[in-house]
Structures are given as C-alpha cells and as structure tokens.
Task: structure prediction
Amino acid sequence: MIKNLKNKELKNEEDPDNICEECFKKDESVLQNLILTGFKICKSCRISKTVFPF
Result:
C-alpha cells in the first residue's frame, strides 16, 4: 500500500530522475550516481550503503 502511494507521488513529479529510490528525496546527485553506478540513490544513501552494506 505504501509502495503504491510512493509510486503515484513519483509519477506526479516533473523529473523522476532526480528522486532517490532509498529515501525518496529529490537531489541532483541521484542523476550523477545513476550515470556512474547504475543505481538511483543520492549521495547520502550511497555513503550509508558503502559504510553499512547490509
């Protein structure tokens, strides 16, 4: 249910490439990480995944 609501919110955004898949915040580093790594995550989520890879 929550996932469906978040997907609807993403469809309403004008630029979905700048929205992090982990924390759903809009950040310009998401597009940069998408190009570099292939994942749509922001800089802070990428650091947390690097430090705590669980």
Notes: Residues 2-12 form the longest helix (11 residues). The helical segments are 2-12, 29-37, 43-51. The chain has three helices and no strands.
